[in-house]
Specification:
- The complex is a heterodimer.
- Chain A is an alpha+beta fold.
- Helices cover about 45% and strands about 15% of the residues of chain A.
- In chain A, α3 runs parallel beside α5, α6 runs antiparallel to α7 and α10 packs across α13.
- Chain A is elongated and about 125 Å long.
- The two termini of chain A are about 65 Å apart.
- By secondary structure, chain B is α/β, with parallel strands linked by helices.
- Chain B folds into 4 domains: about 50 residues; about 120 residues, Immunoglobulin-like, CATH 2.60.40.10; about 40 residues, no CATH class; about 130 residues, Rossmann fold, CATH 3.40.50.
- In chain B, the strands form 4 sheets. In chain B, strands 1, 3, 5, 6, 8, 9 and 10 form a 7-stranded mixed β-sheet that branches. Chain B has a 5-stranded parallel β-sheet with strand order 14-13-15-16-17, with helices on both faces. In chain B, strands 2-4-7 form a 3-stranded antiparallel β-sheet, with no helix packed on it.
- Classes of the chains: A alpha+beta, B alpha/beta.
Amino acid sequence: MAAVIRRTLRLPPSPIEHSAEARSFAFLAFAVATAAIVIYGQDYVVPLLALPIAALGHVVSHRERNSKRGLWRQVLLVTLVVAALFYLLADSALALFGGVLPQANFAILLVAITSFDLKTRRNCYSSIWISLAILYLAAVFAWDYMFGAFMAVWLSCLFAFWTGSHLRRIGSAFTTPVRPWLLSLGSSLLLGVFGFVVLPQPAGSPVSPLVVSLPNFTRFQGDIESPALPLVQLAGDPTGATSSIDLHFRGRLGDAPVMYVRTGAPAYWRGLVFDTYGDGAWTASIHGYRELSPYVPARLMPPQPEDNLGTFVQTFRILRPMPGVINAAYPMESLYAPVSGLREDAYGTFHTPQQLRPGQTYSVVSYLPNLNAKVLRQDDVMERLPDHLGTYVDARPLSPRAAQLAEDVAGSATTYYDKVMAVTTYLQRTYRYDLDLPPVPAGRDAVDWFLFDVKTGYCEQFATAAALMLRSLGVPARLATGYSIGDYDPVLNQAVVREHDAHAWVEVWFPHHGWVPVDPTPGVSPLAATRFPSHWAGGGIARLIPHLAIGAPVAALGSLGVLGVVPVALAVGLMVVLAYAWLRRRRFGVRRRVSPGEIDLLRLYERLQRRLGRRRAPPETPLEYETRMGPGQLLDDVTSAVNEGAYAGRWPDPARVRELARGIPAISRRRL
Amino acid sequence: MRPTWRVAGAAALWLVLEWYGATSEISWLFLLGVWIAAVVLIAAMYASWNRGLVLHLELESSGPGAQSPVHELPEHVLRTGPFPAPIFEGDSFQVSVGLDTRGGDRGPAWVAGDVSGLQIRFGTGIVPRTGWRRSRTIDALRRAPISASEWTIHTSDPLGFFHGVRRCDDAELGIVLPKFCSLAGRRQARELEAAASAPRAGVGVELFGVREYRAGDALRRIHWRSSARLGELVVREYEPPGVQSLAILVDPSPRSQAVADQVARIAASEAWDCIREGGRVSIWGPGLQATEPRQARDLWALLDWLARYPGPAGDDPAPVTSDVVMVTGSPDASLVEEAESSRRRGARARAWLIGDAELDVDLPVERAGVEWPL
């Protein structure tokens, strides 16, 4: 039975790949993927070392493709593969070689080593699929449209590999009708881009976070420091970490990117949360934590929201040193970070043992709660505030004047949601956002100074005022910090988060929805709920068009994806015009039509020359040839017909040529 | 046109890319997935365009073997032989295989088929408008028609995703003729034959041929049609009476292929000896179709008949001639009866007996094995 199963499962033998061209393109596909890793992964040593080795390996494999595999070579290759595996473990676990993309480097080394043993077509396919995996890793790090060129070149290599392999299989050299072949390749690329733009992209539930980097074993040392994101720059702390948000200070934030986020939905990337406000500063009152492994599965996370729209995965790539805080969309479903362990604080935020280094990558799967005005308005029945929420309704730091303002703003609002929206929209409409804020005068309450004096502020002022005003209305609220969405590109599902995207907002407790993000800062939606974007590249591209000052109505249309039809319509129109021109050229053609008799007669003339034992020399006219070959009725007839066709344009019909051809057997070959 | 397994592979790759794209939010995977799907679609379009090819299959040339009669045949005889050259047992020949296109350049395409039991397969990436040709040398075939059977034209897209097959009609490319040589030195009746008149042009009843007009020729002998065609005067020549006419009676059911081959070779040798002396030859076997009277002087037609020997069945009567040669490997009663009856009518009759069989006949008999040369 076992033997039968083994026989059934055994793959049929793969033929030896004899096509040098196919092997060349398999190598080129690897080179393209490696170049993408070099450029987008900023990983240099292993790729640049592996490329010439792989090239040499391909040459050796092609030359020795018909030879039997030598035992010692096999042993050597296996040893090298094991060594590459050791490198992977050592680099990913201990960062012995810098810990830069160890799995990509392993794949590159694997291709380089096995390139010395690419005998069969299946071997070549293995090399190509590993190069596809390398390209995939590069795609995780690719943040611009230029990466599309790498993809196109890689696909062209695959196209050419298939061609070379197939032509060799049928016993042909690497020749095809050039124009149709190039037209096929070009059409495939254009059609693919067209399909990418017009076809909706399915969104599936992520199975797990993406494991892009493997963990290293740097341990936690001491308690959680609660390092804040660099909203506030405190002198004396080289990491920029702080355990508080002080409204009296504001760091200068530049335009430099701090991280790339590959995400299925634009969201606020939440980091630290603060629950206690006093003397113009927010602090966290609970310092407990629990330790978790680098991969936190769903069973260790809080239960999923009752009403959610699904999950989406985010992959973060750190670009500059950051505090060891996992910024991500909340609530999380699962998390993977390349560290030895994680700590989750009392507010649900995850911490890493050390600072996040440039190049480090972590991945999170988050729920997308169904948050909208209708459902939140119904979610306000809370007979008694849970004990653990007591801190979040502490409005004692708020002055009576500010509390009165909150009462006035809330007015007749009765539900949680209406109160929250009343306060946030009031702040958004009444106060001005400005980063150039003078320091809070000594002895002044920062919130009062913001609400009643300068009436200008940045996100911390807005969020603090909103949180305290909501607390005074009995709505549990706290301050959340992190980063706003950043520059989000719905076509590529990615966001570039910069220093100036550091942000603070409010989280409000709803009995059946938990902590709901609310943003009182002007210029954004008050309900900072994550929404799935249109997974349709056409809509994403259309998003770019309205910014060309077409106007708000067109922008609104563009956001709906209607303008996405424009490039498509242009492409279709162009194709129609080109097709019409081609058909017209073909039908009425400038190209001279060749009569069947011409082809047949010229073939007969060739055949006759072969038969007579001497081919007509290029400078020799047909008449000269006939004279030199001596008299002969058939040669005379054929020469006359050729001359009449070539110089008078009167080619004989095929029947006449067949009649002439019947005279051929009467002609002897000279050599016989 | 049907998809190949590569399409399944490409579809699997596309599904993997879509699945990874849908679960990893990496849009590039969608782009690559759509590209793979587009490649399959374009490949299907290419494959449906890559059609309209016509098989070209012909004998290109031959290379005479060591025992080939070609070495002995005079130029004027070879000139009238099959195109491009006669092929005898043991000769090699080249088959030209190719494809022609009715439109512009096409490809890739490949052809596969069978020439006299030998599998041939050639492929090309491009079939130019002027046609594509490949040659294959085939060595030492046995006496038989050179048949081209089960030929198919295969077309595909350059990536091998879709495959179209078209079956071609079976055809006969040529024929491998039996070897022969002059047996004049072996025959006991050589002296008798030497008495027979050599062919002479003269005044007779059977047309001998044509030649250029010479002064003194009778005007009524001018062949006006040939003269008009050739542009010079040509006159008819007639053969004189008394030219040898030979009937070769062959075994209708040889015991083995080797015996049949030897029967054909000896019959061909007898025919050649007769024809080159200006005689006329008929070949007949009981129950077989006999050669036609108009083929009596045509060596190539007789060799063609012998190449197909024993050939199709028929009920032609035995020819009446002045000479009869029976070539057999077995004592076929009707064959022996016909030979003896010819002798009784006054014809000079003799026999070749191949192998170990016993032949009870009142004729001079010469024995031969199955080896060649005798």
